[in-house]
From TrEMBL, chain B:
Residues 77-173 form the Toprim domain. May play a role in DNA repair. It seems to be involved in an RecBC-independent recombinational process of DNA repair. It may act with RecF and RecO. It comes from the Bacteria. NCBIfam families: recR. GO terms for molecular function: DNA binding; zinc ion binding. PANTHER family: RECOMBINATION PROTEIN RECR. CDD domains: TOPRIM_recR. GO terms for biological process: DNA recombination; DNA repair. The gene is recR. Pfam families: RecR_C, RecR_HhH, RecR_ZnF, Toprim_4. The lineage of its organism: Bacteria, Pseudomonadati, Pseudomonadota, Alphaproteobacteria, Rhodospirillales. It comes from Pacificispira spongiicola. Keywords: DNA damage, DNA recombination, DNA repair, Metal-binding, Zinc, Zinc-finger. This is Recombination protein RecR.
Length: 244, 196
């Protein structure tokens, strides 16, 4: 019998039969991992098994390639803290569904767990939208498609960076990008200045920026559309921008 | 024996019944053919024939406009939105709400591929237009991630109508002891605290 214990954040829980649930988890040491929880639809466990919650799991199976059974213990009920706010709840659902779709199962992502855990904490505080965008930029890097926003790709200057090249994912300064600005993606200031915050329009620009690279580098290869929650999050900021 | 096997297979599909318990149920039905099996068969046939989904609210009844929607004594200015017919029955059991209902037929779920177009949302929006007496919509979706995502989505869609939108309170259940509550429930209860 193979057995391991790990910390995990619940990505999704699917009903299985009448009482059980199949969980998809982001674990600290083993990446995205699935397992069956007996009694996962019980009243006792339903609150614990809400997507976004942090849990401690023990996974057991006879063979490594089996689905395996999980026992779970609650560690932190992040989801309950975010349910009242539509934007924060959408951001949480978006992050979970991006990982669920973009990470291959059982492929270790050593920093992804701590990054997601930190995001869950940050979503309950001020500046959550900026933190969410930074997390998406980090996700792109984790998947091997990091943006280089440190200096202008054309001139090397580090000031006044306000575009990103859609071809290279590198920053471009206002001066160097002036003649190509219709073809470049807007780079909101808060992404190049540590701790800075952005207004609704800047968040909208940032979501368009990361969406472009998520679409191009990740989801087009998976032959899948971006998750609904991610699209709805972007729609929400677009509506706030336009006041509709 | 083929008939018995078929009956067992059909009953085993019901929630709470597996093949063994279905077999026991079939044996019991056969034993009480006149007193149980035939009345049950008749009741099933009658229900299959008569039960309709109310096109106004999504409730189940024997006529297209259900008894709740038809009842002139019920408050026409309030609609309570629920996920499933079972939730409507649960609220009716309390006897507290005297308005009307709207059954969404599920919740938004990325995992199960349920989008807004799969839910009974368009019919709800049609019920709160300017020509309707509705003043308040009470969202009674479950306190789950999917339930609350759906509630926020419905709230956004209702916004242009100008109707008042409220939701059920979240917090400590009757008889609940703080020491035994999970931290999510406690956090929600604290956030939703009220002045006394």
């Amino acid at each position: 019998m193979i057995e391991w214990r790990d910390d995990a954040i619940l990505l999704s829980a699917r009903r299985h039969g009448e009482n059980a649930a199949v969980l998809s988890l982001l674990t600290r040491d083993r990446g995205r991992h699935a397992g069956l929880v007996r009694g996962g639809q019980s009243r006792k466990l339903k609150g614990v098994l809400q997507p976004g919650n942090r849990i401690a799991v023990t996974w057991k199976a006879r063979l490594e390639e089996h689905l395996g059974t999980l026992t779970v213990e609650p560690v932190h009920g992040y989801a309950a803290h975010l349910m009242a706010d539509p934007g924060r709840l959408l951001a949480m659902s978006s992050a979970l569904s991006l990982i669920e779709k973009a990470f291959a199962e059982r492929e270790p992502h050593p920093y992804a767990f701590d990054d997601l855990d930190a995001l869950m904490v940050a979503l309950d505080g001020p500046g959550w939208a900026e933190t969410y965008i930074r997390w998406e930029v980090g996700l792109l890097a984790e998947l091997g498609f990091g943006l280089d926003l440190s200096a202008c790709a054309a001139t090397g200057v580090t000031d006044d960076l306000c575009y990103v090249s859609p071809k290279t994912g590198r920053a471009v300064s206002r001066e160097a990008g002036a003649i190509y600005k219709d073809k470049l993606l807007a780079l909101p200031g808060f992404l190049v200045t540590r701790g800075a915050s952005g207004d609704t329009a800047a968040i909208g620009d940032a979501l368009r920026l990361t969406r472009y690279f998520l679409d191009r580098h990740v989801f087009s290869h998976l032959d899948a559309p971006l998750p609904d929650a991610r699209l709805r999050l972007q729609d929400r900021f677009r509506n706030l921008e336009t006041g509709s | 024996m083929q008939e018995i096997e078929r009956l067992v297979q059909l009953l085993a599909r019901l929630p709470g019944l597996g093949p063994r318990s279905a077999r026991r149920a079939v044996l019991m039905l056969i034993k009480r053919k006149e007193s149980l099996m035939q009345p049950l068969a008749m009741a099933l046939a009658e229900a299959a024939d008569k039960i309709r989904t109310c096109t106004t609210c999504g409730n189940l009844d024997t006529s297209d406009t259900c008894a709740i929607c038809r009842d002139p004594t019920r408050d026409q200015t309030a609609i309570c939105v629920v996920e499933q017919v079972g939730d409507l029955w649960a609220l009716e059991r309390t006897g507290v709400f005297r308005g009307r209902y709207h059954v969404l037929g599920g919740v938004l779920s990325a995992i199960d591929g349920v989008g807004p177009e799969d839910l009974n949302i368009a019919a709800l929006l049609a019920r709160v237009g300017p020509d309707h007496p509705v003043q308040e919509v009470i969202l009674a979706t479950n306190l789950t991630v999917d339930g609350q995502t759906t509630a926020h989505y419905v709230t956004e869609r209702l916004e242009p109508s100008g109707v008042k939108v409220s939701r059920l309170a979240h917090g400590v259940p009757v008889g609940g002891e703080l020491d035994y509550l999970d931290d999510g429930t406690l956090a929600t209860a604290l956030k939703s605290r009220q002045l006394v």
